[in-house]
Design a protein that fits this description.
Elements: H1 3-10, E1 13-15, E2 17-20, E3 27-28, H2 30-43, H3 51-55, H4 62-74, H5 80-97, E4 103-104, H6 108-117, E5 121-125, H7 130-139, E6 148-150, H8 163-172, E7 179-183, H9 186-195, E8 199-202, E9 219-221, E10 231-233
Parallel strand pairs: 1-10, 2-5, 2-7, 5-6, 7-8, 8-9
Antiparallel strand pairs: 3-4
Helix pairs in contact: 2-5, 4-5
InterPro entries: HAD-like_hydrolase_sf, HAD-like_sf, HAD-SF_hydro_IA, HAD_2, HAD_sf, PGP-like_dom2, PGPase_prok
Pathway: Organic acid metabolism; glycolate biosynthesis; glycolate from 2-phosphoglycolate: step 1/1
Family: Belongs to the HAD-like hydrolase superfamily. CbbY/CbbZ/Gph/YieH family.
Length: 234
Amino acid sequence: MTQNQTLLLSRPLKIQAIVIDLDGTMVDTQGDFVVALNAMLDDLQLPHVDEGFVSVTVGKGTTNLIRKTLEQVIRAPVDDELLSRATLRYVQHYRHISGRFSTLYPGVIEGLKILHEQGYALACLTNKPSALAGPLMVEKGLADFFNCVFGGDAFIRQKPDPLPLQRTCEALGSLPAQTLMVGDSINDASAARSAKCPIALVRYGYNHGHPVEEVGADLYIDRLTDLPELITKV
C-alpha cells in the first residue's frame, strides 16, 4: 500500500457513484482480442499478431485496435475500405468467441458485491462497442451490479475525451467531484482528470505496456476489494 493510500484510509474519498472500466479493469480480455484479431487476419489472408502486440495496443477503442493491427502486419497505411472489411470480420468473430478466452480478475465480483451493498450507484464505461460489451458482462456475471453500461459507440467521442464520463455522471445523477473513475490506463486517468472526477487505477491492467504508477492517480489498488476501505458514501 502506498503512502498516499495510507493517508486516504484516515480520510477516505467522499464518493456518490463509481464508474468502472471493463477491459483490463474487471475482465482480462486479451485472449479474446488475440483470437478474434487473428481470425480476422485469416479471413484477409494476412499474418497473425501475438499477445505481446495486443497487450500494448488495446485500450483506445476497437477501430484503433483494428487499424494498428492491420498497420502492424501490412507495414503500410490502412485505407478506409480495408478497415471497414476488417472491422466487419472482427466484430463477427468477437461476437462468436466473446468471453471464451477471457477471465475475471481476482476480487472483481466480491468487490462489486460490497460496493453494491454499500449503496453506491455503479456504471460501466468502456471503449468496447456496446454490442460486444453487453454480452460479455452478462457472460461474466457483471451486468446485474450496474445501473447503466455505456460502450464506445454510446457517445460521439470515446475516452480519453471527458465527454463519455461527463454523460455517465449525468446518467447516474452524481457530481463529477464525487464520482470515482476506476480504470487501468492513462485513457481512464485522462478522462477523469478532464471531467474533474477522482481516479483509481488498478495495478494489474494493460496501460499500453507501461507501469500504471507512471500515471497520476488518487488511488492505486491491487484488487477491487481494496476500494471500500478507501472511500466513503455521501
